[in-house]
Each structure stands twice: as structure tokens, then as C-alpha cells.
Amino acid sequence: MRTSIATVSLSGSLTEKLTAASQAGFDGVEIFENDLLASRLTPEEIRGRCADLGLSIDLYQPMRDVEAVPEEEFGRGLRRARHKFEVMRRLGADTVLVCSSVHPLAVDDDDLAAGQLGRLASLAEEFGVRVAYEALAWGRHVSTYDHAWQIVERADHPALGTCLDSFHILSRGSDPKGIEDIPGEKIFFLQLADAPLLAMDVLQWSRHYRCFPGQGGFDVAGLVRHVLRAGYDGPLSLEVFNDVFRQAEAGPTAVDAHRSLLVLQEAVGPAGLPGPVVPTGVAFAELVTPDAEPVSEVLGALGFARTARHRSKPVDLWQQGEARVLVNTGPAARREGTGLAAIGLESPDPGGAARRAEALLAPVLPRRRAADDVPLEAVAAPDGTELFFCATNRPELPDWRADFEPVAHTARDCGVTRIDHLALVQPWHHFDEAALFHRSVLGLSAQESVDVADPYGLLRSRAVSNADGSVRIALSVGASPDEDTAHAQHIALATPDVVAAARRLLAAGGRLLPIPANYYDDLAARFEFADGELETYRELGILYDRDAHGEFRHCYTRTVGRVFFELVQRDGGHRGYGAQNAPVRLAAQHVTGG
After folding, report:
1. Model pTM score
2. What is the DSSP letter of 270?
């Protein structure tokens, strides 16, 4: 299906918005009136610019407070409409959005509304324009799609149809199945938006918290299925009012928007996308650092051994059990400092995973490699983290470790078996994008978003994982752009015995994050422990949580640069990440400086 986006969904000037929409792959745009009024381009120049960019102008919007008003007020509305229709003719736009009235003089009279909309449609017809009537969720007398359709049907004018908006329909809890009773040719336009499920005034909800399909809690795909069954054959168009999106760069936001429609089309029917290839494990985590010594000291204390070095790059492989950490001291590290830069994902089909990622607009990363290097497919996540699709110990596929040459080492096992999960701090503008990216591109399932108290604000966190938990990624974001760099990323390491692992780390000279005594006093009130168990946790700085599936014990190293490590013991199928303990950990890191 054709795709479109309202210019109000993007930041910047009208020219910047049109360019971003075109480069992201949209077929058309809705021109929001304020964007036109603020532009120095004439309607003819905007029309030409859209044509040069390969964009159609699918809708001009909005026209407000036209119907069910006193005749004098309606006359003023017709004068406004005549001017708008002339502008639309110059733009080359043939459909106008008319919102249900919120005018204080509007009356609850469907016959009057239908008659006035019919007269408006007759005027529009003279200019080759169609009128798409939409029920605002907060409309004064018309606030549901079925009521709007009844008025359109009563008016019975060929240039008058309805516009369906997923937010206005789903935010009111209306049943979208009735859409199938509307003739497809009378659905003139379809606007789509998702939203988190919030208990608040619907107008404020709409104006500030809409998001792209798949990023909120609405069943947008279910609504679209009903619209398609009705026979609608117009574009899927996004109309999203969102404070964060309007402060973000238009280009990445447009890409995120178009990706959401590609995923939506896949959900409602064949979309021609390569199928999802879900990763089956974490092959490695890659740290970049300008100084390998502090990172090496922490890894050594954790029981990792430096087992190999890349043949042609300044990259060392540290390993313990199936947990692998690459330490890269190349040029990027000198620019960026110590941090988590890349993740290697075990993939049953690396090529297929890369093709799906590219089809869903993930940037494919060019790699500088020698002729005999293993070909690795890599894309960039929204936060810039490099994702490699690779294979380990699979005879039918090239093994990424073939690029490394073994070095002499002494193994000192600390009980770490594998990487349990990775925690990635997202740029403020891209948290919702990141969740959709990891779900759609990687095929991971998302948990509900949670808020975590930090001494200086709130963190939002959302975890994604595969079915068996062998890939777990926790995505988080601060409460404001100023907090983008305030929180470190971390690598969580699985161990069957966190107490033994913590003691070995301390014996090797490592340092654990100290936890306040008050935490353990509260823990004693919440749970019953065996004799001496709580005292051991207090001594080592081990935190504890329990849910219906099992127990979770974990502790943290001190931070190096912008990364730290966590030792994790899951028992009985515990599925969480210690969110209950996160405020204590964050406060302790603030006090100790990491």
C-alpha cells in the first residue's frame, strides 16, 4: 500500500520535513496548514518541490468548526473554505480534512450538520476537492466514527466522505468492527497513530503522547484490517502529535515512521519483507576503550582470560565459559572513551537477518576488512550500537573467531557461564524507536515499559528478549536530553553461584559496588532468609528479588568509563532484571561515582 505522513509529525521547516519524508521512502504527505503558512515557498513551489521529491500531496488539513453552527457562522466558514480550496488547487491537493466541530455555538443537530457539510462539499466539488469528515474524540457533539459516518451518509454527496483516525477511534474504546459497514469508496482517508495507554484528558493525550504504530498500546493493526475489509484503497498515513518527535531530527524520525508502517503492513497481510530471523544467543559484546588496562583489570578479576587477538586490528578477545568480551583500542575508542560499542548476535541465518534489517531501513555498516577476514553482516541500532549477525561453532557457516589468533593465557574461572543480558542507554529522542527496532528488525519480544526512580529524575526502561531468554536487552532512557550521558551501559554475566563469584572477584583484587545498610534492613522485612544468608548479601553488596517464577541475586562492579558489569544468578526461571533494586543501585553509583 502507499504510505504517507503528516508534516506535523516531523520537526523542522516544511522543506526539511518534505526532504526527510522522501528520503525515508514515503509516497506522499499530508500538508498541515501551519507548515504552509510558515513557509516562504508559494503553493506552486511546494507542489513542485513535492513532485521533485516523488511525493504526492494526499491531504490538506485541518478545516475546523464548519458544521452544525448558526447560518452566519457557517457563512464565514464557507468564505474560509473557498480560500482554502483555491490554495489546494495551487498545491495540487484534492482532499481536505474537516474535523467535527468544537465551536461553542455548535448544536446537536445531525440534519443541520449533514446539510451544511453537503453545501461545503458542493463548493469543494467546484475546485475538484473532496471533503473527508473526521470525528474528533473530543468533538462537541460528534466524537465517534460511526456518528460521523451517519452524518456523511445522511448528506449523501459524492464529494463528501469520512476520514478514519485510529487515535480518535481507539482512545474512546470504540469497536472498530463497525468500520466494515462503511462502503470503502466513502472512506476518503485513513490516519494512523498509536499511543501508550494513559488515564488522562483525551485532548492532551492526543496532542502530546501519540506515537507510531507498534510503539504504544493500541491494536492499530486490528483497526487497519477492518478498514481494508471495508474496501479502502487509499494510503496508510501517519498523523502523530508528539513532543519528543517534534524536538528530534526529522530524518531519523521519518525513517522510524516509515519502518512502523512496513511492520504494520506485515502484520495485516503480505508485505514482501524478508521474514524475521530471531537471534539465538549473544556471541560477544564489544567494548571500545582508549586504555585497555582498567578494563583488563576488571575482566581479569571477573575470571576472564585474554584468549586471542585479531589478526589485523587492535582487538583482544576475553572469554570465560560462553561469555565473550572484545576489547577494542582502535581510533574510535580514542574519540568516544570506554563504552559498549557492538553486540554479536548468534543467528541461524546471518544473511537473512541482514536482509530483513536492511528492508526495515536499518543502516548497513560498511566494514574495513582484510581479504581473508570472515565476512560479517552488521547494521546500526538507533543508538548507534553496531549489531553483528554471526555464527559460533557452526560448521556450515563461517566462524567469526577465525579472525582471531590464540594467545598464551592462564584460565581462572570465576563461575561465569554466559552473557545474561545487556543494558543499553538510549538517546532521549529514540527510546520508542529503539523498542520497535529490536522487536521488528530482530524479532525480539518486548516487556511492558517501567519507570525507575533515580536520585535526579526517572528512568524509563523496557526489556526485549527471545523466547528462551538467551538474548536479553534492557533499553533505558533518562527523563530529559540532559540525562542521555548520565547513565552507564552494562554487561550482565550469568553465574550459578553469585556469592562464590563475588568472593572470587574480591579475592582477585576487584571492587564491587557498596550497597547501603538500609537496603538490607528493608530486605529483612520483605523476605525470609536462611540463617546467615542476609548477612552474606550485606557483606558482599548482593541485591535480591523474587517473583512468581523464582529468585534473582545480583551485584555490580565499579564503573569504568561508561560501562560496568553485573553478576547475575537466576533461579527457578526468574524473568526480571532487578527493577525493584535499580533505584538503590543508581543511588549507590551516584554516591560512589560509579
Report:
1. 0.92
2. -
